[in-house]
Amino acid sequence: MKKYLLASVAALGLVAAGAASAADLPSRKGPVVAPVYVPAFTWTGFYVGANAGYGWGNVNANGFANVGDLDGFVGGGQVGYNYQMGQFVVGLEADLQAADLSSGNNLGLINVKTDYFGTVRARVGVAFDRFMPYITGGWAYGNVKTSIPGIGFSSDRSHTGGYAVGAGLEYAVTNNIIAGVEYLYVDLGEKNILGANTKIGTDFSVVRARLSYKF
Q: 88 and 159 in contact (C-beta within 8 Å)?
């Protein structure tokens, strides 16, 4: 009996020694890789960019007949700031546009042209990750030139009491590059050019592509 007890104790010792040796061997498991944290995109930040598109609209000419419509190229730049709160994005944007929005009546007696305009607008959008549809509206200003060659008359008036409303869609291509398309309706109001009974103004629509860099 004593021999059996000694043999059992020896066997247990061998098992314990083997387990200790196995514990000392290097692990075959690979190194632990820490998870890479990718921050969610945010629309918050300043941005600056450029745009180009096409405009078309009306000449508002009190006292003249058959002045016609206007259309032409528009292009310029924009600067603004967005602030995201949950899914909602609010912001403020200013833009300045060169334009070639010109018109003349069927007889060529009256020529009206808007050669630049700008806006300062609030924007409200809903963010779907990197997509953001938005609406916008605010103040508009511009320049309207009128000429009547038959009488040698010309007028170059700044219009500062207008407004602009519209909507757009933007997509963040990267964390810094934002592309979009936008529609604006711009009304520059009217100004007297030949007395109180003769006013000239323009209102027009603009569709433009946009590209901005967000800081």
A: no
Question: Does the model's pTM come out above 0.85?
Answer: no
H helix or E strand, kind and range, residue 112: strand 111-126
For residues 35, 36, 42, 47, the Cα torsion angle rounded to the nearest 10 degrees is: 170
- Per residue of the chain (215 residues), give pLDDT as tens: 444 444 444 444 544 445 445 445 455 665 666 666 555 899 999 999 999 999 999 888 776 666 778 899 999 999 999 999 999 999 999 999 999 998 865 556 788 899 999 999 999 999 999 999 999 999 999 999 988 877 778 888 899 999 999 999 999 999 999 999 999 999 999 888 876 678 888 999 999 999 999 99
In DSSP terms, 125 is beta-bridged to 89, 134
**b/e map of 172-182 (b: 16 or more CB within 10 Å)?**
beeeeebebeb
